[in-house]
Each structure stands twice: as C-alpha cells, then as structure tokens.
UniProtKB/TrEMBL annotation:
Domain Nuclease SbcCD subunit D C-terminal: 267-355
CDD domains xref list: MPP_Mre11_N
Protein name: Nuclease SbcCD subunit D
Family stated for the protein in its record: Belongs to the SbcD family.
Domain Calcineurin-like phosphoesterase: 1-218
Example GO biological process: DNA recombination
Keyword Methyltransferase: no
Provenance organism: Streptomyces roseochromogenus subsp. oscitans DS 12.976
C-alpha cells in the first residue's frame, strides 16, 4: 500500500506579516497532483490542519476545497486533530464525511477504532491518535499521572490490544501528534509541556508497522518506522534550513517500509543574515538572498539610523530585524532577554527563587512550581478548546 504522509498544514497562519493562504492553496494543489500522479492509495494528515481553534473563514474554505478534491480522487484520507486544532470543530460531521472516504479522528476515546483499508495483500488498520492533552484525557485512559508518556502509552496499549484481535498479517499505521524524544524542534511549534515532560520515547509506538507523526515542523526520521513529515511550508526563520516535503511510504505485504521524500512548492526561500548594516549592504556574497524572505541580525555597537528602510533597498522582502550588538559576555548591558534565552519557565522561576533568597527551591518547592505551571498551561488549553 502506498501512503502519503503529511501534517501541520496550519491553514490560516501568516509568516510574519505575509499572508500565506496563497502558498497553502498551492500546496493543496501539489498534494492532489502527487496523490494522482504517484498512484497513492491513502493519505494521512497527522494534525494541526488549522493554525488555531477558531480559524479564519478563508482557511475553512481552503480546507473544504481540499476535502472535496481529495474525495473526488477516490483515495481514502485519514486525519487527526493537533494541539492547534479545536478537536470538536474539526470533527463536526465526521460520520457523514466518512462516507466520502475522508476519515476524521478527533476523539481520544476512539483511538483504538481503526479505519481499515485493503490492498492485494490484505488489510491495513489506520489508528488515529489525536493530540492528547494529559490533563484532559488522563481519566479517559485511566492513568494516575497526567503526563504525555503515560497517556500515549495507555492509548497505544488499546491499539495493540485491538490489533491482536485482527486477522494474522494485518498491517498497522498509527497517526499521532506528539513530541518524540530525539527529534529536533523549531521556533514555530506551540509548547506542549503541560504535564511536566513533553517528550515521549519512540518505544511507546512499538508493535505497529508505521507511525506517521505530526507536531514538529522539520521532516525527520527517528527510526525506519517512525517519522515526522514536517510542515509543508516554513512558519519561522528557524526553519530556514528545512527541506519541506511529504513522505511517500510504501508498506509491503510483510509490513516492510520504504520511504521517499516528495518536495513541496517553495513560495520564497528564507535567509538569515548577520553583520553590521554597512557590511550587509555591501557584501557581494549576499546577492543570492536579494529575492528571499530575510531575517537580518545587526551587530552594530550602536543602532544605526533607518535600518529597515536601508535594508529593504537591497533586500526588499526583509521581514524581521534583530539587534544583537557584539559585546563581551560579561558586559552589564547584555539584555535580560538574552540571558534568559533557551531557558524554560520552570528554570526561570527556580533562578528567581535562588536570586531572592540566596538558595534555590528544594524538591518539594520545585514540585509545587511545576504543578503551578502545569495548571496554568492546562487552563489555557481548556479555555482555547471552549472558544
């Protein structure tokens, strides 16, 4: 069976101030063409179809167009909700849409109820694991601790139990939206650290033939059977080095996986350039970036006059301007933001306690801080779902 694995469309999202709807529509066209020309048997979309719980009307219209075009091909499509989606909104009409071959899986309770498709070699069971917010689904899965590994592990136990009841030789595909240990994140993914630890080990997914992951925006191979497709478009300058693509997966009769990357259309390349303003404007080696979307980091010791206006004369698509004067590490003028770069909320809070009283929090106090941050994040998720 040939499967096209994609995720993280983020319909409705902008790139800085650039409306990306046209580029997203171009990707949908590319997706449909790939399905038709490469004789794909099934499409899987592993979450974050939309960029937010209440997407703009234009994004909903594009999604509707995508569903119609995929249904017209007669190729089954399986989709799950991600942490950016409203599971309830995305899942509206799922029972009716099923009849058109579009299978929306947004309910955690249905994780072990597969979409079963067949080919010349027998059945393939597709299990949809929508994003599982630990605080909201721990009771559903009967786990004591609201952690990502615990709830995903319990959901996978249900899937393996269902798979064990199926005919010998039944192959299996799991769609999941999660942060798996060993993968590389970028700046454009929303934090999912509620529950203490966000990452789950790849071993959670043992026992199935292929795991189609969503959430992280870089295309990645964790094992031959566990992969991220990444987002089809770049949504932050941290993705400047990404090659945007989908996975074309061939699942053989015995469950062997072979994979090929299919490149996505690139609306405009990304470039991150750094130096003094005069240096950036004069450097002939930067000519290749003159048509790119640019993030410029200026290292001038004193902020120059009209930097954006001067930059856009040479780089007309400059979208982001960062000031990072080159100073010695012990210079007292180094900004507070730079000192905090890369540190989690938990670490910042613990550092603050140490600064105020001269000693960091003990084990009990650390646990209290963690519970407080988890409660705030979980409350934010509940509020967004309720919108």
């Amino acid at each position: 069976m040939r499967i096209l694995h994609t995720s993280d469309w983020h319909l409705g999202r902008a790139f800085h101030r650039v409306n990306m709807l046209g580029a997203q529509a171009e990707f949908i066209g590319h997706l449909v063409t790939t399905v038709r020309e490469r004789e794909v048997d099934a499409v899987v979309v592993s979450g974050d179809v939309y960029d937010r719980a209440v997407p703009p009307l234009a994004a909903v219209e594009l999604f509707d167009d995508a569903l119609h075009r995929l249904a017209d091909l007669g190729v089954p499509t399986v989709m799950i909700s991600g942490n950016h989606d409203s599971a309830r909104r995305l899942g509206v009409g799922a029972g009716l849409i099923d009849r058109a071959g579009i299978h929306l899986r947004t309910e955690p309770s249905a994780a072990a109820t597969p979409v079963v498709l067949g080919d010349a070699h027998g059945d393939v069971a597709f299990y949809g694991l929508p994003y599982l917010e630990p605080a909201l689904v721990k009771d559903e899965f009967g786990v004591d601790k609201a952690g990502h590994e615990a709830v995903l592990g319990a959901a996978m136990d249900r899937i393996r139990a269902d798979l064990a009841t199926r005919a010998p030789g039944t192959r299996s595909v799991v769609l999941a939206h999660a942060f798996v240990t060993g993968a590389q994140a970028s700046d454009s993914e929303r934090d999912i650290t509620a529950g203490g630890v966000a990452a789950v080990p790849a071993g959670v997914f043992d026992g199935v033939d292929y795991v189609a992951l969503g959430h992280l925006h870089g295309c990645q191979t964790l094992t031959e059977r566990v992969r991220y497709s990444g987002s089809p478009l770049a949504y932050s300058f941290s993705e400047a080095g990404h090659r945007k693509s989908t996975w074309l997966i061939d699942l053989d009769a015995d469950g062997t996986v072979s994979a090929e990357r299919v490149d996505c259309p690139v609306p405009r390349p990304l470039a991150r350039i750094k130096g003094t303003l005069d240096g950036l404007l004069a450097d002939p080696g930067l000519a290749r970036h003159e048509d790119a979307w640019v993030e410029a980091t200026l290292t001038d010791p004193v902020r120059p006059a009209d930097p954006m206006a001067r930059l856009t004369e040479r780089f007309p698509h400059t979208l982001s301007l960062v000031f990072a004067p080159e100073r010695a590490p012990d210079d007292p003028s180094v900004s507070y933001a730079r000192r905090l770069a890369g540190r989690s909320d938990q670490q910042i809070a613990q550092d603050f306690v140490a600064h105020v009283r001269g000693a960091g929090p003990d084990e009990r106090e650390t646990a209290v801080l963690r519970e407080a941050f988890d409660a705030v994040r979980a409350d934010a998720v509940v509020r967004e779902v309720a919108r």
